[in-house]
Amino acid sequence: MAAKNAEEEKPAESADAGEAVQVDRLETPELEAPPKSATPKADGDVNLDMILDIPVDVHVELGATALSIREILQLGAGSVIELDRLAGSPADIIVNGKLIGQGDVVVVGDNFGVRIAKLVDPEKRIDSL
Fold first, then answer.
1. At 72, which helix (H) or strand (E)?
2. Other CB atoms closer than 10 Å to residue 119's CB: what's the count?
3. Percent of the residues in the chain that have a pLDDT greater than 90, as a whole number
4. 15, 56, 114, 119: which could form a disulfide with 101 (CB 3.0–4.6 Å)?
5. Distance from C-alpha of 119 to C-alpha of 99, rounded to nearest angstrom
6. What CATH superfamily is the domain 2-127?
7. Do 60 and 91 contact (CB within 8 A), yes or no?
8. Residues 58, 19: contact at Cβ < 8 Å?
9. Short-list 70, 69, 66, 91, CA closest to 81
10. Who's near 1: CB < 8 A, 6+ residues apart?
């Protein structure tokens, strides 16, 4: 009987040696096609609905300058930092670190705003990504 038990334990070993192994079919649910709005349009453009609500950082830059640490430490209330732009020059509109246009600083209620005066060509905006 000991030999018979050894033979019963061998099927796994003999399966590796080339014996036929029974494989059962796995039942999977049928998948539905994605809605048309999530698939590419016929003209090859990808539908942008999926990314329209992603937040981006928008900055408006009036100008810039370089100061030494000594000059920074000497700043106090009422100090004026001179920027590299002339008064009345358009401010840069920067989205996620990329220049997308320029505009004029305006006051909207109690806040500042920017009236867009010029946008970078869309192809150049895409190329800069």
1. helix 69-73
2. 13
3. 47
4. 119
5. 9
6. SpoA-like (2.30.330.10)
7. yes
8. no
9. 66
10. none
